[in-house]
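Hi V.,

You were right to ask for the full record rather than a summary. Here it is.
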Amino acid sequence: MTDAAAKPPLVRALWGATHPGPTLVVTVLSLALGIAAGVDPGPLALLVVAVFCGQVSVGLSNDAIDGARDAAVGRTDKPIAGGAVAPERALAVAVASVVVALALSAPLGAGLLAAHALALASAWAYNAGLKSTPFSIAPFVLSFGLFPSFATLALPAPGLAAPWASLAGAALGAAVHLTNVVRDLDDDRRTGVRGLPHRLGARASVVLAAVGIVIGATAVLTGTDATVVGVVFFAAVLVVAAAAVTTAFVRAPGRSVFQLTMLAALLLAAQLVVA
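Predicted structure:
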């Protein structure tokens, strides 16, 4: 089989470089928050597609900028590092996706346009270099802190989300960042990436992520009426976060710790939606 025959189709390769899992999770979360906030179907469709395009741009730009670094550590599972997509082409599609994301946000109001633009700018800043600094967590705190406001800014009477929702979003973003790099700490260090989690170490990053998730869950519980469903989600977050921390101290943080911490983060996201 020739190299050309072995390469996946361009569209499939580009999709693989968007970080499909996180892209879809964030898109679905925007849909859930929009429905919970009471956004009408038309504006909701615009919001969801805008968020999807923005996430595509973030994922593609990340892998395009990191293409050489990923190839250096043997990440040929990634389409760009494996040669299935040229970095220049991926970056061009990423830029086009940003333009579409902002164009779709504009009809929903100046507030949403500004919030989405700020969130995307911070994500691109992370990809472009902030990921290698002690401030690597800042784009996640900012972008996810703004995220609950996307739904409320798309309403006929737009406004920022309640402070407890923004705090929960920021805590979720911090946890995602601190947890997501645990599996790649060694590869990142080899290529010169030294963000906050790399400086803290895997175990401390997991503990800090779990604490942040619990803080976010507490903010949601105390900021809203304590329904039975809300209390159940809060209890579930506590149990899973505690399990993640315990596992991190029993064994070297690895896949199981990552899965537990991300499960706690997803439970926090669900708690935010039902609140």
